[in-house]
Amino acid sequence: MRTVFLFTPDADRSPVRDALEYGPCRVEVHLLVRGEFRCPITTPPRLAVLEPAPGAAVGPLLSALRQHPVVGRVRSLIVLDDQWLPMASRMPCTDFVSRRAPPAEVLARVERLIGADSEPRVAPLQHGALVVDLEGFEARVHGRALALTPQEFALLRYLVLQAGRAQSRDVLLSRVWGQRYAGGTRTVDIHVRRLRAKLGEPLAERLQTVRGVGYKWAE
Is residue 80 left, alpha or beta, with left meaning phi > 0 and alpha meaning psi from -120 to 50? Predict the structure, then answer.
């Protein structure tokens, strides 16, 4: 299994860690203390994810990353405060994501970066005319890509992976939006309605409402 190293100053309160827990990779969390990468000298991971403390300077951090003997030459994703985003394209990292990005976007960027490796792909899931490409972060109906937002895709993917099992709105909020999402369960209902509209008939009928519980994808 592909390994991702997450460097964060606070492992217990890391939104990025919450997102990565539901991805197709093994996550190793290492402390980031005063710009130092504290991890054992071991086999390099597929990807290094940097989650600096809010307001921290990123220049010295990226410089230290490039000089590190383990993660200095692997792909890297850095989580940025909004003030750094205009300069992100010039930073010495493979990709970046806003600190305010939802879990689905963080996971999408991670999956795209680790999916570039030459390892066997995870087979897409197929339900009739619907194909859900787990690594490509894309859903297609009769070969046509659906114009899904990252949250809509994450919701569809989770329900399809749990096909036949009813999922409560609270569980969906936790698994798709993240444990620290402050919105209410009405958010799930809105996204389900939009997802059904984009799926169209008859596929929309498979995204079923379970009275008193939530939703499920019918097998």
Answer: beta
Domains of the chain: 3-114 (3.40.50.2300), 125-217 (1.10.10.10)
Q: Taking a C-beta distance cutoff of 8 angstroms, is the pair 155, 195 a contact? A: yes
Distance of alpha carbon 162 from the chain centroid: 17
pLDDT, tens digit, 9 for 90 and up, residues 59-94: 888 888 887 867 887 899 999 999 989 888 888 899
Q: What is the pTM of this model?
A: 0.56
Contact present, 139 and 150 (Cβ < 8 Å):
no
d(CA 101, CA 17): 13
9-62: pLDDT as tens digits: 888 888 888 888 777 788 888 888 777 777 776 678 889 999 998 988 888 888
* Exposure string over 155-186, b if 16+ CB within 10 A, otherwise e: bbbbbbeeeeebbebebbbbbbbbeeeeeeee
The token pair at 187 is 């958010």
Give dist(CA 37, CA 151) in Å, integer. 31
